[in-house]
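Table S2 (text version). Query chain:
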Amino acid sequence: MSSRRTTTIAGSLVAASFSAVMILSSAAGADDQGPGSSKGGKAVDEAPAGVELTTLLPEKISVDNSSQKTAITATVKNEGTKDSGKIQLLVVGFDGLTVKNVQGCSPIDEKNLPEGSNSGFACPLDNLAAGQSKSYAVDATFDLGKTGKICLPVQAADGKKTYWQQGPVPFGTTNPSPNAPATPLLLGTDNKPVAPGGDELPKTGVGRDVLPLGVAGAGLLTAGAAGLWWSQRRPRKQQG
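Corresponding structure-token output:
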């Protein structure tokens, strides 16, 4: 075999190996957050016949200890037998968890955020077919010196009904690691803050299970409908 041909084959093998590593790395990265969970979710208003809307959050996320940045995947699903029609998913942050951006979504004006929240985005959907789901990449920061929660309501396009609400559900750790490059947080776990004396942090935000929220703006709610967000009726369904 000639030296040139040997070099060519070797180069091809290296390229193939590099591609395989890239594919495996991408797959591993996609699995870093673990399976999705509807923990802390509840049905609120009755959805149209044949429509069953739920949401999923990753069971674990990782916070960079130097930048406080983290990434979260928020998913809305239609587990029913009929298409949803126009709906919207909201992604709202509380306490130490601040939502910085949600791909393809619009920020909620500060004056229309629910009491106790610090940030939020609205994601309109023209339709979610039966059995289908839609995932959104959420960029956020998490102050490890505080507790942190996230909330995912799924509403009618006009905001007058909330079909499903997950949260506000906490991410956190009972074993902070301030000297590590990153801190893993688990869904449904109250955060034990890194700061000295952080165990006694006062509770912040609103303690009710279902919060009122108003949003005004193009493609979202009118001001008159603001008081209709996140009905405070007793939840009819609980999923863990």
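Notes on Table S2: Residues 28 and 198 are 33 Å apart (CA to CA). The two ends are 63 Å apart (CA to CA).
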